[in-house]
Amino acid sequence: MSAARRLTYFAVVAMSAASRLAAADRYEASVTLRPIGGVSRVTEDVGGNDGATSTAPRATGATTYSAGGELELAYGLRNWLDVSAELVASGCTEASYDQARVSVMGAPATGHLVRTTRLAQLRAGATLRAGVAWVSTLHLGLGVGGRASSAATLAGATQGRMFETTPDGMSSGVSMDGAVVARVGLEHRLGARWGIGVAAEATHTTGFGAAPIDTASAGISLSYTWYPLLPW
Amino acid sequence: MRSTYHKVLITGLVICGAASWYAASAEPAPSAPPPRKSETEILIPPQGGTAEVPIHAGEVCILSFPEPLVGGNALASSTQFEIQRWRDDGVAVRALSTSAKTTTLALSTSSGAVKVNVTLVVVGDDKPALTLVRFRAVSAEAAFEARLQAAVGKRVAALETKIAQLETNTEAELRARLDGEIVERRLKRNETFALAAHERSAEHVVVHITQGAFFGDDGLLMFEVENRSRNAFRLAGVQVRAGDREVNGPTRLVSSSADGDPNVVPVGATARGAVVVHAVDRIIGKSLSVTVTGPPGSQPIQLDRGIVFR
What we know:
The complex is a heterodimer. Chain A is mainly beta. Chain A has a single domain, classed as Porin (Beta Barrel), CATH 2.40.160.20.
């Protein structure tokens, strides 16, 4: 992990005076809707290769804005611990890579490459909670998901002529991801049922066959809590 | 309610006692039952009076008057007592044996303000006796009031003794009945089943109904009150309804409240409780609604799902 990335993670954690909302006390279930926005570091293998020790292209990252939403269902095992599952959908603005070195029809090509990415993930995790009316939270979760990438567009010039094309292996498609998320937050119970909160989170998405995406985001949340009828 | 009943009973008996006293002759006016080997003062009205003086055999009792007595010796009806003048205004008496029969002694002061016929009674050592009796001349009203108070005090003391005994007997009887009822119910039916009904108030007081029980003809709902609010929670009551019908009996809560009130759940604490459900056979299979009421002004906590006797 690069120093910049570690710094980003540290900043996300340190700055998170916010929290996610709608965690549940013991026996409570809650559903939470959380719109989020942040920045993502989208990595693509567009760095070319050194030609001597490796033929694989090197990964190069680009920073984009991202936005999306999370829908979480949580159940309180204890007043201080609940488990949850959440569905996440987000999208990144166009990632731009200058001097991308890729292959076009088997021939090396260099130019400006752009590509957009959408993510959908299903995560499960646990949340540590402290408080009653005001609850600070720390959530850790794992998940799997899909990444939908647009066809990359390489723009460049050769022999004085401009061209735009899709590099080899960078057409549109869907790939599988694994994700790890850490979230801190602060929630406030408005009463027996409703709550609001703020949260900041850091997500690391590792592509199975694709380059990783790191996201730092923050959001507000609204939750509804109730006691489900369960046989225990 | 029992206390009120006792007060009414005492008042009535006191009135009857006062009326019966009014028809009776003058009595000594000690303000309380005479202690063992003590003294007393007897108030004599202008028209004269009588007094009964218990004494122990062999012990001297002084009869003291506010002014000199008439005559050299008192007029006594028995020779089994030694009776001597004690200065000008007193008489010393002593019973010569425990078998000395009751005797009377007529005494009068020089001015005639005190005229009294004293009855000397020899009592055993196990009974209280007097060693000094002071006679004082008072108006008829004062003597009446003193005798009235003495009579009332005597009656009340006797009644209080009886009531205390009655209470002791009643508590013992109630305890025996209660124990018997518990055993009968236990033998008839004793089944428990799990419940998982939960609800909370906006003040973060959480009620968990964790268990139901069949106990004889009645049932029990076991619950917990988890106080996550910032204030102590005082349980005012628990109501159980089957439809429109109230079916609950008494509620008990066991709390660790510092002030000793078992109905108070301290901040951050959880207290266990139970509420009786009457005639549980009539509501088997019906969904029950439980309302837990807290301090005035607080939001009642209502649980209306998942509470069924099966």
